[in-house]
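explain this.
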Amino acid sequence: MNIRMVGIDHDKASVEYREQFALTKTNCIKAMMKLKETNGINGCVILSTCNRTEIWISHEEHLDLPLKEYFCKLKGLDYASYEKFLTERRELEAVNHLFNLACGIKSKVFGEDQIISQVKEALALARDNYCTDNVLEVLFRMAVTAAKKVKTNVKLSHVNYSVIDEAVSCLKREQIELRNKTCMVIGNGEMGKLSAMALKKEGADVTVTVRQYKSGVVEIPEGCRRIHYGERMSYINNCDIVISATASPNCTISMEDLGLVELRKPLLLLDLAVPRDIDPRVTELNRVKLYDIDDFKLDISDEKLEENLRQIEAILQAQIDEFVEWYECRDLILVVQQIADLAAKDIGNRVWGVSGKLNIEEDSRESLENTIQEASKKVVDKLIFGLRDNLNVDTWRECVEGMNKIYTE
């Protein structure tokens, strides 16, 4: 199975190391295009989130590419210094990893929902830029399908579903009251909007920063106020809590800027971005407390967890088996299509051999001929792939090869 991945995630690396490998959407596209030009690589997908950055490739049999070293070189980092933080997986191990990842059980917040969308978006970005191939297309789509089945059939009611939900729970556990607190959310992307909605739900007074875009008015969550991003430092002295969650490569709150503010009350900062938005040195300032994304990890000790994991494992294994079966037989898909085309043509000739003398107008005849041909293809496809579901792979291959000989010899 010619599938490989390399990545860095929260299991091995803290945010200070993960942020070194984070990629913006533009940089993801550039990296994928460069990978796709590499001899022996058929397709690639890059997944970059707050908790992980992963490069996925589908390749020829004898590809000679040190993927860990390539990853470091891509980011201009010294391999010897970062190798211990990287994980490389191949073949079935890689497939298992993606299916488990997509349903949230490898996330920092166990069972969170965002990862499904992130996996879908990673595939869509690769597809839109002509970087993926049939193998990665099917792999990622089936991983998303498996994740949706897990969400539908396994009720993980004992966990939260996003980092901001766990952050809110963490603050509550520390007796930090959110109701009527003055809060500012820097960033109006997906995480920023989730953060604003979560704070608003808790009864906080929420202001969201926005930038000026040529595309028009930026929407913010209902009930929140807005200020321009450039006004954030002048507004910060009104705040009890500030959350920053942008995709910016630069600090949204620097040590120098915050050091110029004479804080009138304690300020709680939550940095939910990777790379980090807030200069970690701000903790040296009086009245400032800072959390970053690594401070929020759900305690999943629960008596129902073991049963949930068994259910998840069964669902994922069935979907993984389906992918493996597809992968093993993918070389026969074109053969099956050829059989269906030839069988449809054969059926058409036999039908018109009998009914050729019927008085049918040319347009109607052509329409009927196309209908018969398409229906015939579907029936043959159904029969052949139905056999695959009821036979082992080797026997099915023999059947397909035998049917192909009927029309090609």
The beta strands are 3-9, 41-48, 52-59, 87-90, 182-186, 205-210, 225-228, 241-244, 267-271, 288-292. The radius of gyration is 27 Å.
